[in-house]
């Protein structure tokens, strides 16, 4: 065991603060990574404030962070994919049973025995796993991803959650040229959704509650932008979408979007608001429309997404902040004031 610097929350109402945590020494299959950048996902905020208490109670202290890129500093004797000095990245998963049908199918995110990067039981050290708001992490090489060399590291970090969470459902639901695709909520996930839908060739419509994001949405790759609080603008798109990705973090009217789907169209929720969303049956019955969810993506698909980003030069639009500004960043997330992902420069932890 060794000590790592980190930021943790002591309880659901306390701000994140500097701390020291224990990390395991790398075992034979482990990779130790010096973390260079870690994105701030809205899931970090939901977890730190214990907003998902009924489904996933938060164990405190909590060290969030699952959008990790860094430099490999040490590898175990059986590691074949990485050597010291390589770039390595870690997303939301650090372990799974590797044998169940989901794992065999490359869907580790659905494995009953999967271990999340933070707030999951830690089978090595006891307690819970600690995430990327830290200067280092130790992870089994199966869960460490390769980062294409042409991508900026600060902008690549958010690909590990915001990237795969939007890429995976778009691939699953067949987003391609000729499809009309909506993306709801221009935050960290939504802005990646716009970039991917555009790169996959679709006609992309961005839905936002923030009129000031209109120009950015077009720059990010949207063909049209709809301010969702404007009922007339919404009505113009009734019954026309093949696929809509809903990446909103708070309560909102999902029925308004279900009505925008064509027959057999699908709306997939990736946003995970604290409270249940009421759904009107009729919106689904008429037109045989469907409503689904999607959870991050498996390890092989995450690598595929990173390689796709390397080939298309796609990264998140980031505002780089020092670790010391994390509490302020959380307040701004709650005001939808992020363009479009905070990425923490972990060099800032050295002064702690
Ligand atoms: P974020 O950066 O805070 O973006 C959320 C966006 O939602 C905001 O920028 C805003 O966009 C819109 N929004 C916020 N409050 C709203 C409201 N009251 N009504 C309508 N729109 C509102 O969050 P994120 O990191 O992208 O995460 C989004 C959600 O996805 C979170 O719930 C997160 O936990 C979840 N998530 C799920 C997965 C998964 O695997 N399924 C993975 C990661 C995250 P506009 O200003 O454009 O309206
Ligand atoms: Zn996330």
Describe the structure.
The protein has helices spanning 42-48, 101-104, 153-156, 162-172, 188-199, 214-220, 231-235, 255-258, 281-285, 299-312, 326-334; strands spanning 2-9, 16-23, 30-40, 68-75, 87-90, 93-95, 115-116, 136-140, 180-184, 203-208, 224-227, 241-246, 261-269, 290-293, 318-322, 341-345. It has 352 residues and is an alpha/beta fold. It has 2 domains: 2-161 and 297-351, Medium-chain alcohol dehydrogenases, catalytic domain (Quinone Oxidoreductase, Chain A, domain 1), CATH 3.90.180.10; 165-293, Rossmann fold. Strands 3, 4, 5, 8, 15 and 16 form a 6-stranded mixed sheet that branches. It has a 6-stranded parallel sheet with strand order 11-10-9-12-13-14, with helices on one face. The chain has a two-stranded antiparallel sheet with strand order 1-2. Helix 11 links the parallel strand 15 and strand 16. Helix 4 (162-172) crosses helix 5 and helix 4 (162-172) crosses helix 10. Zinc ion binds at residues 41, 43, 66, 161.
Bound molecules: NADP nicotinamide-adenine-dinucleotide phosphate, zinc ion
Shape: globular
Under CATH, the topology of the largest domain is which?
Quinone Oxidoreductase, Chain A, domain 1
CATH architecture of the largest domain: Alpha-Beta Complex
Number of H/I helices: 11
Give the end-to-end Cα distance, rounded to a whole number of Å: 20 Å
Strand content: 25-35%
| Overall CATH class of the largest domain | Alpha Beta
Number of strands: 16
């Amino acid at each position: 065991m060794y000590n790592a610097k980190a930021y943790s929350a002591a309880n659901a109402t306390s701000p994140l603060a500097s701390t020291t945590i224990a990390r395991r020494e790398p075992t034979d299959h482990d990779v130790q990574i010096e973390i260079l950048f870690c994105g701030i996902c809205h899931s970090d905020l939901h977890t730190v404030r214990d907003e998902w208490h009924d489904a996933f109670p938060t164990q405190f202290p909590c060290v969030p962070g699952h959008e990790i890129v860094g430099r490999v500093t040490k590898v175990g004797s059986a590691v074949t994919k990485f050597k010291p000095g390589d770039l390595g990245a870690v997303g939301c998963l650090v372990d799974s049973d590797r044998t169940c049908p989901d794992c065999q199918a490359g869907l580790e995110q659905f494995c009953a025995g999967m271990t999340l990067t933070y707030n999951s039981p830690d089978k090595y050290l006891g307690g819970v796993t600690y995430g990327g708001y830290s200067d280092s992490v130790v992870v089994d090489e199966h869960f460490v991803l390769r980062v294409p060399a042409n991508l900026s590291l600060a902008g690549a970090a958010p690909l590990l959650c915001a990237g795969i969470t939007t890429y995976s459902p778009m691939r699953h639901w067949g987003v391609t040229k000729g499809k009309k695709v909506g993306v709801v909520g221009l935050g960290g996930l939504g802005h990646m959704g716009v970039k991917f839908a555009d790169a996959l060739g679709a006609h992309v419509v961005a839905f936002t509650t923030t009129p000031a994001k209109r120009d950015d949405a077009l720059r990010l790759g949207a063909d049209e932008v709809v301010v969702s609080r404007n009922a007339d603008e919404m009505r113009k798109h009734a019954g026309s979408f093949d696929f809509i990705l809903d990446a909103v973090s708070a309560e909102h009217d999902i029925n308004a979007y279900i009505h925008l789907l064509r027959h057999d169209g699908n709306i997939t929720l990736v946003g995970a608001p604290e409270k249940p969303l009421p759904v009107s049956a009729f919106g689904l019955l008429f037109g045989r429309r469907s409503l689904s969810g999607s959870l991050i993506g498996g390890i092989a698909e995450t690598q595929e997404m990173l390689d796709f980003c390397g080939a298309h030069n796609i990264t998140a639009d980031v505002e780089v902040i020092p670790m010391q500004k994390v509490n302020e960043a959380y307040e701004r997330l709650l005001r939808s004031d992020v363009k479009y992902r905070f990425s923490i420069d972990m060099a800032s932890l050295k002064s702690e």
